[in-house]
Amino acid sequence: MERYEIPLVPGPVSIPPAVLAAYAVDYGSADMEDEFFGLYASCEAGLQRLLATENAVTIQSGEGMLALWGALKSVLRPGDRVLALSTGLFGTGIGEMAQRCGAQAEIVDFGHDGVIDADVVQDAARRIRPRLITAVHCETPSGVLNPLAAVGAICREVDALFYVDFVASAGGAPVPVDAWHIDLGLLGSQKALSLMPDLSMISVSERAWAAAAETDYPGYDALQPWRTALADRYFPYTPNWHALAGLRVALDALFDEGLDAVYQRHTEAAALCRTRLHELNVRLFPRDEAYSSPTVTTAYVPDGWTWSDLDAALRSRGMVVGGNYGPLAERTFRIGHMGYQADVDLVARGMDVLAGVIG
Fold this sequence. Notes:
359 residues; alpha/beta; Aspartate Aminotransferase, domain 1
């Protein structure tokens, strides 16, 4: 497979050498070694620090969708009411997933170029009194970063669990789980954490644990067995020692840099990306840039180009970005400046290539 000098994809992102080195070590049997249990505990503590939460954080083997499905199936019963907030493909998709679980899910769509409106959410929540309200913090197809603090307060008002997908934001933007009243916070390893796509992490509140016990879902992605897994030293399946070792390296790097500095690095990389795109007369998503994510930028394919032609031209010069999905497919492309790729020099090089391609 060809390697590109300027990787600016929106995930899975480039992996730092120190993280790759952690994967290359031969470890023992994860479910039998004291060293592994200590590593798991330290990773959970690190994730709690990153997410500003006292809630437990499960660390499960599987790509980020495992977290999305597992959290839903662990707390929903057939007929439960769900309010799914959507500003794009994943927000709508979560509502459809809830429906597949047998829930009565109402999807409130704010449009691919919009953001969540708390007043609209409050009216809908008071009307249907859902068991669960779902939202996506960073909607990667549109590059929107949704404001969520007010939604968390609404969840408490109507006694709904708050389920948030922050797969593409945590580690690149502040995600204060406890302050936002997030009951189920979903994280994947392949975005701002800059790991392989092999871990799913979920912050779980006491309210969510109680709902999981009531639902008693038994599948591979179930949350309930993880509540006492570390204390009992008995995991539902063989844990991924290599991935945990990489996660520990990644978390240490974030804390050594300092979270404020990490977030500033992402902000600066995003600002440079958008400034250069404006200079090139490339139109951006969303229409209100105040809600643009620091981890990914979405832009229209320039006039006179098709996505496939633009992609091929960029790749021929050593740069790779991301295409798009759903209604935004072929019309837009995405630049991932998250994790290891949140580097102003890398972004500047990428924008130079784009300028050379589109003139």
